[in-house]
Amino acid sequence: MTALKPLIRCREIRESDLEAVAELLTRGFPRRSRDYWLGGLNRQATRAAPHGYPRFGYLLDNDGSPVGVLLLIYSDRGTATQSEIWCNLSSWYVEPEFRNYATMLTRIAQRLPEVTYVNISAARQTWPIVQAQGFRAYCSGVFLSVPSFSFAGLGARVEQVATDAQALQGIPSDEADLLIRHARHGCLSVVVRSKQGPIPLVLQHVRIRQGRFALPVMQLIYCRDVSDYVASAGAIGRFLLRRGRVSVIIDANGPISGLVGFYTDRRGRKYAKGPRQPRLGNLSDTELPLYGP
């Protein structure tokens, strides 16, 4: 008898697939626990997402069993009258015996011309593959800042955003919603209040592994402009010191004037393709706040 070829197809991930997808990703990324993946997938299940786009991403289905997955996180960064669709291509894994079909996932996931696609966590060994798919680096590294050494913003007051907040004084409603929902994801959302006006920021606890040790630092997830962080660095630094954090990582393409710290291109490269150029200092609604570092 002639052996039947497996029926491989690419389809959208459904809520009924989440347990199996978490198991698959746990095998593919053994440093991450099953609870880590389920937590992020459940946050994706309940978040607001643009209508008409996949909520979770795509999987390779082998006769009813998932054998590959590419997580997608869609968001609309536009206005009430003009949408601006972004998609974070997140974790990608295919079982070894099915890797000949891996390009099916990437082709279907990147086919929409109106969408700006970003890859913010490409491992160094995958950079040539990402570039071959048409992506270009918009961020070449990170700046590790020590904001408490700065004198900028010393007279300002830092106000932490509560997870049950409904509105924030002086902050537009859409931006207030961003700060509140990221606080609910476990991020540190703050408003720096000074004579120059309120400055909204979102930071996240991360650990940078250096040899055997993982150093606790913060990652800048959202700001209107990196210059806002620079202008309030002293106030932020002292606020973080009381919480046991010394450093803040910022996406950068070189040293940042006005900050104490150092730049490195050994980590932090980020890619994009599509109609819009991402700006540095905006990682909101991506895998970092949704899944965690």
UniProtKB/TrEMBL annotation:
Family matches, as SUPFAM superfamilies: Acyl-CoA N-acyltransferases (Nat)
UniProt key word Membrane: no
Stretches assigned to coiled coil: none
Keyword Iron-sulfur: no
Keyword list, A-Z: Acyltransferase, Transferase
Protein name: Acyl-CoA acyltransferase
One Gene Ontology term of the molecular function aspect: acyltransferase activity
Superkingdom as given in the UniProt entry: Bacteria
Domain N-acetyltransferase: 8-184
Region Disordered: start-end pairs: 270-293
